[in-house]
Structures are given as structure tokens and as C-alpha cells.
Design brief:
49% strand, 1 helix, four-stranded antiparallel beta sheet, mainly beta, Lipocalin
């Protein structure tokens, strides 16, 4: 009996788990069950676990790129940074690791005097590091040698961002600081009303710094002049999201607030009614985030209109990433999954 070709294709798709909209495109099980951070860059997904294991995956297939998992004696504490063929990782033992994106080999390693809990920033030939020792460091990307250090006198808890020759970061004592990139000189400081635990983000000439009292401060990265403060209910621990026209902040309690940058007015506000545990991340014109019940939600950034909700089939840990087609989520138990976006991608 002859079997129609279409039936054979369908049978094979069912067996191998051909990715369909809203389904997992692939799933990768890490060696250890600790939660992890993920970063998508140029067709690859860098994964760094709180157990000290790291791996580079092919974002389309989930297959490992490196021949073996990179191991560190202490856990990684922030999302990887991928730039110019190098994967930068930071760990709880105060170390910065530069890893070859192609081979997974360690290129260099530098130790500060305190744990590093925030993602580095790249600016020209510099790698900017914020440490629990209360200092901001500029290292040469080629070999990790120190160019300068700046004493901030409080742990750097808001990851640095760079704009116009200035570095802006936040500290656990609730200060926002502007430091000159070339010299390491502290140029200005602005007091917030609570610890700054979210990464600083640059958007449309603003530095946006969010704090644990639910406030988001919009200020000039050059002078530190404050233009706007907005508030949510609950601590803001995730990086603000922006497409250049709208900026969005989401609190751990599930409040989501979007601001139109042209007139600094609220574009939309909503309360998800449960904790936000992963993201938000920008996927085309949509923002995607994970909630405490294991669901992953997408909304239009400009309007807040709901686009879709899917189950992650597990507790989402730490952060999300997106390449415009798939949403990447690290789950409890050490699994990393790629969820195919409904409609075939972000629009």
C-alpha cells in the first residue's frame, strides 16, 4: 500500500517534534539543575548558570557549539555579554571571564575585590565592570588589563550603560552616578530614594535608572539633570525596555508602565495581578515577560494590547531572550527552552 507523501511528512513532524507556533522549537538540558541566565546574539544563545556552568548554543537548534561546558568554581551572577567574538561572564568569586565565542576557550580572567553581580558594558576598546567592592572598573578588552578604577563607595547593583562618553550606573545605597569613560572621573551623582537593582538603560538621550521603591528616573547621562520620575507598585529589578519611542518598566509585583518618550506621558498602565519573574524583553514591536504561574505573555509595546499567552511548562528563572522568532527561557531544573512565537515571529 502506498502512503501519500503528505502523510509521511506529517508523521515525521509528529515524531521529531517539528516546531509549531506556541510550541517548543527545542529544549536543552544543562548538566546541573541550577537556574541560569541567557543572552541571544547573532544566531547564538549564551547560557550561564548559578552553578558555575556555561555553554553556547545554536539558537536555531539548541545544539551545543562549544565542545564541552565551561566550568567555574563559583556561580555566574548576571546575563552573559557577547561582543566581537567574545563572551564575557561575571561570577560570585569576583572574577571576569573572557571566553572565545568560537571555541569556548578562556582568553583571560581578572579578579576584582568583590563579587560581581551585574552585567558588564562594552564601549570601544573598554569593558566596564561594576563590583561589590564599591568600584567601577575599565578593562582593556584585549587582555583584561586595568585602565582605571573609580571609587563609588557602595556596591554597584545597577549595571552600567554607556552614552556620549559617559558611563551611568546605580548603587545599592540609592545613588545614580555618571563617570567619564576615558578618565574614570566621577562627574555627577543623583540620589534616588531606594537601592538601584535594575540595569541602567539608555534611550532617546535619557539614562533610565529603576529602583526598589518602584520608581524610574529619567535623566541626562551627560549632566545628571532629572527630566522625569515615574512610579509603579513594587520593586523594579529588570532592565527597562525601549524601542526609542516608548519606554517600559515592570515591577516584581506585576505592575507594567509604558511611557511615550516624546512627551514623557504614560502610554498605558496595567497590573498583571501576579509576580513578574522573567523579562521583560523586546521582540520586534512586542514585549514578552514571564509570570509567577509559569505563563509567558506578549503585549504590543506601544499600546499594551495582549497578543498571546503560552505556558513555559515550568518555573521561569532569571531572564528571557528573543531573536524575533523564538523566545528563550531558562527554567528551574536546568532546562533551557525555545518557544516559537505565534504567527512565526515578532511583528
Amino acid at each position: 500500500m502506498l502512503i501519500p507523501i503528505a502523510a509521511v511528512v506529517l508523521l515525521v513532524a509528529l515524531i521529531v517534534g517539528y516546531p509549531r507556533s506556541g510550541r517548543f522549537a527545542w529544549s536543552y538540558q544543562r548538566t546541573y539543575p541550577a537556574k541560569a541566565y541567557v543572552t541571544q546574539s547573532g544566531g547564538y544563545l549564551a547560557v550561564a548558570g548559578e552553578d558555575g556552568g556555561a555553554m553556547l548554543l545554536d539558537a536555531a537548534t539548541g545544539y551545543p557549539v562549544w565542545p564541552k561546558e565551561l566550568r567555574c568554581t563559583q556561580g555566574f551572577t548576571a546575563p552573559p555579554l557577547v561582543s566581537s567574538g567574545i563572551v564575557y561572564l561575571v561570577s560570585d568569586d569576583a572574577r571576569v571571564h573572557a571566553i572565545s565565542q568560537r571555541t569556548g576557550e578562556r582568553l583571560w580572567e581578572v579578579q576584582t575585590e568583590g563579587a560581581i553581580r551585574v552585567r558588564p558594558a562594552v564601549a570601544g576598546g573598554f569593558l566596564v565592570i561594576g563590583s561589590d567592592d564599591g568600584r567601577l572598573y575599565a578593562l582593556r578588552r584585549t587582555d583584561g588589563s586595568e585602565v582605571w578604577r573609580c571609587d563609588l563607595w557602595s556596591s554597584v547593583s545597577g549595571a552600567p550603560a554607556v552614552f556620549g562618553g559617559m558611563i551611568v550606573c546605580g548603587t545599592v545605597d540609592g545613588r545614580i552616578t555618571g563617570v567619564a569613560l576615558e578618565t574614570g572621573e566621577c562627574k555627577w551623582q543623583v540620589a534616588a530614594s531606594a537601592p538601584i537593582m535594575a540595569p541602567v538603560v539608555m534611550a532617546s538621550g535619557f539614562a533610565i535608572a529603576c529602583s526598589d521603591d518602584g520608581s524610574a528616573t529619567f535623566l541626562s547621562p551627560i549632566t545628571g539633570q532629572v527630566s522625569l520620575r515615574m512610579f509603579t507598585n513594587g520593586a523594579i529589578r529588570a532592565a527597562p525596555i525601549t524601542d526609542g519611542a516608548t519606554a517600559l518598566c515592570a515591577s516584581t509585583s506585576g505592575d507594567v508602565v509604558a511611557v511615550a518618550l516624546a512627551d514623557s506621558k504614560a502610554a498605558w498602565v496595567l497590573d498583571e495581578g501576579q509576580p513578574l519573574v522573567g523579562g521583560p524583553v523586546l521582540c520586534g514591536r512586542q514585549i514578552v515577560y514571564a509570570l509567577g504561574d509559569g505563563s509567558i505573555v506578549a503585549r504590543e509595546l506601544a499600546t499594551g494590547r495582549h497578543r498571546w499567552t503560552r505556558s513555559a511548562r515550568g518555573e521561569v528563572g532569571r531572564n528571557l531572550a528573543c531573536d524575533g522568532r523564538d523566545v528563550f527561557a531558562p527554567l528551574a531544573g536546568g532546562r533551557v527552552v525555545a518557544l516559537r512565537m505565534p504567527g512565526g515571529g515578532a511583528r
